[in-house]
Amino acid sequence: MAKNVERLKVAVVMGGFSAEREISLLSGAHVCEHLDRLKFEVFRVDVNKASWDVLMNERRIPIDRHDFSFTLDEKRIRFDVVFNAIHGTPGEDGVLAAYFELLGIKQTASDHYASALSFNKRDLLRIAQHLEIPVAKSFAVTKGEPINLYAILQAVTLPVFVKANRSGSSFGIEKISEPEDLLAAIDRVSEIDKEVLIEEALIGPEITVGVIKLKDELVALPVTLIETENPFFDFEAKYLGASREITPAPLPEAPIDRAKEWAVKLHKHLHLRGVSRSEFILVNGIPHLLEINTTPGLTKQSIIPQQVKAAGLSLAELFETMIEQALND
Questions:
Q1: What are the sequence ranges of the domains in the chain?
Q2: Which CATH superfamily is 203-328 part of?
Q3: Per-residue pLDDT tens listing for the chain (329 residues)
Q4: In this structure, are residues 219 and 212 in contact, taking their beta carbons and an 8 Å threshold?
Q5: Which of 172, 200, 249, 264 is spaced 20 to 30 Å from 53 by Cα?
Q6: Where would I find the beta strands (DSSP E) of 177-275?
């Protein structure tokens, strides 16, 4: 008789400390729903400012942060691998990755340096320019330092987007068309992040490209076209149905292929792991990078699941591949 193969213990971490917490909880639940229970023993772990807990039915069992373990029925449980489903801090900005690296625990997302670098919009755009990937003109300011409105308006042309430099899911973004509104917008956004990016608005279709690793090869997923009547692809458009997402994008082949090429190039150059999603605006048919997400949404409404389905893959396959890569990295 064949011996029973012990299942890998997988901690799906979700929640986090940012405004993206509720979305992350949905992403984590969706991951848990699709992980193969014949191969994995799955544990939901809610990471929040007050506590870190394993969620088991109605129970919340505290995580011992000294070694990321917990005790169940007087038995110490340690995880084989962590599936990172936290958007924003501390899952997408590298903080949690650094913690797991110190403990020697494998996890599905990028390492702490790649995560922190990608999460910083200003630094990411500089790298994109170095790679000869077009980006919008921008100007960075820091809370507490003098703001030179004249210098800003010399560097960028209105309308602009005022963005929190380190945020996601379109939190901390305002579109400004009049110069007299700019300083107030900077002040509001600086409450979310002390570093603020003023970015020239790009006019054209918005597309987004997922990148995953299959059989040791980086692959761009089918591209999604995003249509919304909102001023931009904001939180309402992303998660509350105020947008139309079309996968694959019904656009000419040349810009789609170029966006795929550049998304793969960024993923490779930044040494990302797991799945990434790069967002572009097509200006006169040329993709311009907006940002890259290293722990993109995985809810039922999120774009990556749509792209995975369009590629003829299942989420179970994707998630298992991500876990295997984390263990073998």
A1: 8-115, 138-200, 203-328
A2: ATP-grasp fold, B domain (3.30.470.20)
A3: 345 568 999 999 999 998 889 999 999 999 999 999 999 999 999 999 999 999 998 899 999 999 999 999 999 999 999 999 999 999 999 999 999 999 999 999 999 999 999 999 999 999 999 999 999 999 999 998 999 999 999 999 999 999 999 875 456 789 999 999 999 999 999 998 899 999 999 999 999 999 999 988 999 999 999 997 655 544 544 545 557 899 999 999 999 999 999 999 999 999 999 999 999 999 999 999 999 999 999 998 899 999 999 999 999 999 999 999 999 98
A4: yes
A5: 172
A6: 195-200, 206-214, 217-220, 224-227, 244-246
